[in-house]
Amino acid sequence: MTEDFNAVSEDDLHAYVDGALGPRERVRIERWLDENPARAEEVRQWRAQAVELRALFAGYARSDAGDRERLSRSSGTEEARQEPDGQDRATRSRAGFVRAVAAGFALFVAGGLTGLYAPSLLPSGGARPSQIAESLPRQAQSAFLVYASEVRHAVEVGADEQTHLATWLGKRLDHPLTIPDLSALGFSLVGGRLLPVNDKAGAMFMYEDGSGRRLTVLLGRNADNRETSFRIDESDGVETFYWIDGPIGYAVTGEVPRALLQQVADECYRQFEKSEATKS
Predict the structure, then answer these.
(1) In 42, 80, 137, 253, which residue has its Cα 20 to 30 A from 239's Cα atom?
(2) Residue 246's beta-bridge partner residues?
(3) b/e 174-206 (16+ beta carbons within 10 angstroms → b)
(4) Whole-structure pTM over 0.70, yes or no?
(5) Dist CA 166 CA 185 (whole Å)
(6) Per residue in 63-121, pLDDT tens?
(7) Structure confidence by residue, pLDDT tens digits, 181-218
(8) Closest CA to 96 of 182, 18, 176
(9) Which residue segments constitute the domains of the chain, with CATH numbers given?
């Protein structure tokens, strides 16, 4: 057991969460996590914290062409030397820098909770409606990246408890929910989970097709009660169709062809609308 533990270090796990590993190393870590459920749960919590941090600061995110150069300078200028486990030193340095930034954000959030920073960051009325709408695809993409790759803990409640899942999440959102049936498009329900969306309870349903491709449907409260048409957002190959309808915002996310994802979004919209009409 000690030998197995030493085979994967704390730095390896953080690099895995940060996405700083190559394909072979990532597979090795995932196999190790399958055999070490306690550490796998810890890694899952790290990922969830990263999602919450990213969502929290989504409204303030800015980037420019010089960001990558500044990141490289901060990571050190020493040439990469190959490490025994196949991971180069520069990669470890970048992972360490990302963790340092995450730690700084965590301290920043802690200070904000005590009232030290919040007044200077947020308008007196809280987040603006436009910020909430714009952050929806970011949160949906973050949730997809965290949970769609999970094998054992992708969902909290499985498809075999679909009625319970809809009732439970509906109560948390204070909005009756109907889980879309996407079988006509080749996707079956994996299950769902509760997660934060815009600092309130949100819901995520996950689907999978015969080839193992997954997509998610995210629902969150819409504070400003505006209606919007379909919009598309893309980040690093992950695409999201999203819209806001009355009190709820919806986002369909996946790494599938855009035409297929739009079909899924259209079908979800149709079924959600039909459900609302039936209840009214």
Answers:
(1) 42
(2) none
(3) eeebebbebeeeebebbbbbbbbbbeebbbbbb
(4) no
(5) 21
(6) 555 655 655 565 554 444 444 454 554 455 455 555 555 555 544 444 444 333 333 33
(7) 999 999 999 999 999 998 899 999 999 999 999 999 99
(8) 18
(9) 2-121 (no CATH), 129-279 (3.30.200.100)
